[in-house]
Design goal:
37% of the residues lie in helices and 19% in strands. The protein contains 16 helices and 24 strands. Helix 1 runs parallel beside helix 8, helix 1 packs parallel to helix 10 and helix 5 crosses helix 16.
Length: 505
């Protein structure tokens, strides 16, 4: 049992997006008598040059009473409407598919039957790309300005929900500024020692200057250094290396390749991995994430410049093992962000997972009224672990692609599929995926990071759902359902014809 009713101090070890977000979230549920203190060192940098959120970002900002307009102004954030994947199928110049943030109220996903989506199944059966039904895709493809995107969102002229691209450093500074205004204590120091009692609970941290800081609850947001979980407090690490080959990244900045900041994060397949490009206001945060078994750090840096056609200034090489800790809440310690686990930045999973972990932690503390049972902690850890498994499997699906032109892509094809994803893929050979198929990823109050529609955008983009697989479910629809499908397909054709005519004038 964890008793926090008499708590006097909560320490967050590490700043960055995860640390300051956790501090702001905990400030809301603890009384003003409880000190919330963030200890970070100005000598330790923030990982990353650019970052993008998922659809839980806006809800997360709302949960800590931050207005999205203030967030955009303070961080220089740009609209993010999804992802584009370039070169993942054939490697040709025109090889591109999209994973947009489709609104749940969008026409094709609004009609649900038995956990499936007949209108989407009809698109698959007729060889129509899923993004084609979304209003707003033309803005993505035509490199619309931020002002045009905002106007379309305000006028509800798009079937897309927006998240944001942002600079990792600026969001951390904005959260810090907000936290200081809310009486959260900031201490610039390096922690060299973590002290525990006979029960294994952390009771204090000691700075390099020798200051001993007592605490009742500690959040390990120390990034890849992982100061507490797995070192001071035992927890088993689960590697994802069997399924995900990436273990290196070289971040850098680059100029915008187009007139306006793009509305999607780009993932561009290269010889031994892929390049991310995250459009910010004045530049692009980019990086090459790759497998060290297939390319050296030096050759990876050279490939970046060869692909772009100009020199860049790479930042440090980030070395990581994909995986997570099976228990991130142990005693009075919670590990969040990169300290709890890390995978390549495909689909912005790290920040999405961190937000959901903190949300669920706050939920448990609130419902427990300061007295947290061992079973509640156990269930939290189970659900958090399943969230990481969801991330692993969703990312693995992206590599279930037909590209085979380099040793890396051939080895990717031979990499084993996780059991849960293999089972889902078997179902997709016979029908479209359903909500039921993903229930195993959500446990004990945790929301899935990705909706079944997200899985379908990627699966259809890669051709993982055969056109004939959905035929049986469409044939089983009642007559009124078949009529609705016919009307929907006719509407799509009319819109395509109108768009073609408009483009010709």
């Amino acid at each position: 049992m964890l008793n926090l009713r008499g708590a006097k101090r909560v320490v967050i070890l590490g700043g960055g997006t995860a640390g300051w977000f956790a501090a702001l979230s905990l400030r809301k549920i603890f009384s003003v008598a409880v000190e919330i203190r963030v200890i970070e060192s100005s000598q330790i940098g923030v990982v990353g040059v650019g970052e993008g959120g998922l659809l839980n970002l806006q809800a997360a900002l709302h949960s800590i009473d931050i207005d999205t307009n203030d967030f955009v102004c303070e961080t220089g954030a740009t609209y993010k409407w999804g992802f584009s994947y370039e070169g993942w199928r054939t490697g040709a110049k025109d090889d591109r598919y999209f994973h947009p943030f489709a609104s749940a109220e969008g026409l094709a996903s609004k009609w649900e039957k038995s956990g499936g989506f007949p209108l989407i199944s009809a698109m698959i059966h007729n060889g129509i790309e899923m993004p084609d039904y979304l209003r707003g895709m033309e803005l993505i493809k035509n490199n619309a300005s931020q002002q045009e995107a905002k106007q379309a969102l305000d006028d509800k002229q798009v079937d897309i929900i927006s998240s944001f691209h942002f600079d990792s450093y600026k969001i951390a500074e904005f959260f810090k500024k907000t936290a200081l205004a809310r009486n959260i204590v900031h201490q610039d120091a390096i922690v060299d020692d973590v002290q525990t009692n006979e029960q294994g609970r952390v009771v204090a941290v000691v700075t390099r200057e020798g200051e001993r800081i007592e605490l009742d609850l500690v959040v390990d947001a120390s990034g890849l250094s992982r100061k507490i979980i797995g070192k001071v407090v035992p927890s088993r690490w689960q590697s994802f290396g069997e399924h995900l080959l990436m273990d290196r990244a070289i971040p850098f900045y680059m100029p915008h390749p187009e007139k306006n900041p793009g509305l999607v994060s780009r993932a561009i397949a290269l010889s031994s991995g892929w390049m991310w490009q995250i459009p910010l206001v004045n530049r692009v945060g980019a990086g090459y994430v790759y497998s060290s078994k297939h390319v050296s750090d030096e050759d990876a840096a050279a490939e970046i410049e060869s692909h772009l056609g100009y020199a860049v200034k790479p930042q440090r090489v980030i070395r990581f093992e994909p995986g997570c800790y099976e228990q991130v809440w142990v005693g009075n310690v919670l590990s969040v962000g990169l300290a709890s686990g890390f995978v390549e930045p495909l689909e912005a999973t790290s920040i999405g997972q961190m937000i959901e972990s903190v949300r669920n932690f706050v939920r448990v503390l609130t419902l427990s009224q300061g007295i947290v049972s061992d079973s509640a902690v156990r269930e939290f850890n189970m659900s958090n672990h399943q969230s990481w498994i969801e991330v692993r499997d969703f990312l693995r699906m992206h590599y279930d692609c037909p590209r085979r032109d380099t040793p890396f892509w051939r080895d990717v094809a031979a990499t084993p599929l996780p059991d849960a994803y293999r089972a889902l893929k078997e179902c997709m050979q016979l029908r479209a995926p359903r909500l039921l198929d993903l229930e195993g990823y959500t446990l004990h109050g945790r929301r899935g990071i990705f909706h079944v529609i997200n899985w379908m955008f990627v699966a259809t983009g890669l051709g993982l759902i055969p056109r004939d697989a959905v035929k049986t479910e469409l044939m089983a629809l009642p007559n009124e359902g078949k009529q609705a499908v016919g009307e929907f397909l006719a509407w799509l054709q009319q819109r395509k014809t109108a768009a073609t005519a408009a483009a010709a004038t």
